[in-house]
Specification:
- The chain has about 290 residues and is α/β, with parallel strands linked by helices.
- Helices cover about 40% and strands about 15% of the residues.
- Helix 1 crosses helix 2, helix 2 packs across helix 3 and helix 3 crosses helix 5.
- The two termini are about 25 Å apart.
- GO terms for molecular function: oxidoreductase activity.
- It is an enzyme of class 1 (oxidoreductase).
- It holds the Pfam family Aldo_ket_red.
- Its EC number is 1.1.1.-.
Amino acid sequence: MEHRYFGASDKQFPILGFGAQRIVDEHQCTEEEAIRIVNRAIDEGITYFDTAPSYSDGQSEERLGKALRHRRSDVWIATKTHDRTRDGSWRLLEASLNRLQTDRVDEWRLHNLVTMDDLEQCFAKGGAMEAMLEAKEQGIIKAISVSGHTNPEVQLEAIERFPFDSALVALSAADHFIYSFAHEFVPRAVEKGVAVIGMKVMALGKLAPWYEQALRYTFSLPVATTIIGMETMEQLEKNLAIAKQFHPMSDTEQLDFLKEIIHLATPDVLRWKASEWMSGEWYRRD
């Protein structure tokens, strides 16, 4: 697989990363199968693993920890805090370390900042950023990250306020049409040396009929890696095959693809950007 630099650092990752949200009972993936899938991913060269304490009440982290306990030095683990306070974030990190069976995580993210108010809370006195800076100073984390699905203006403001190492953002082809991180966020992030990690590639399954094109679209962007949620070995093998054969989309291919899927630019499909969804708690789990 093609490898790319992680922002301004000398670290490199394969273009295909592993989203561990789905290796849980909720997605009909057993613990035994989850461990098999994760080990197969590592054997095939995947080194970037993303999880969060809110994914199935910690089950994602727990299973990832069991799978990686003997291969910790082979991988990069990113997890998150959805708490906006210092103390709450520290409690989440301590629980994450316990479930992941490790004394450190490589990357810690502010989980899905939806509004400017979310950002203000994190940067306020006693906010989550204090926990992140303390954890980095203590060597518990290496990289400080931010994530978002909804409004690229929030993540743009975040990287102007602080030199985040990375940003995990929605970069499906369907996201191309409205509040586009690809258009509004990625160029500035690249300019500032912030590693961009793509997510929401399949638009919650809506892009499944265009599976290979969907992956190629996101891989063709200036991303450090792209995380794909995988709950079966079949999905992993399919994603690996596409990643290994990847060649960038031409401008003509991209335009033809976008014409085919423009009808998907609706609130029902792009739920993470729809105002009726933003006020709920659904995004904490996604």
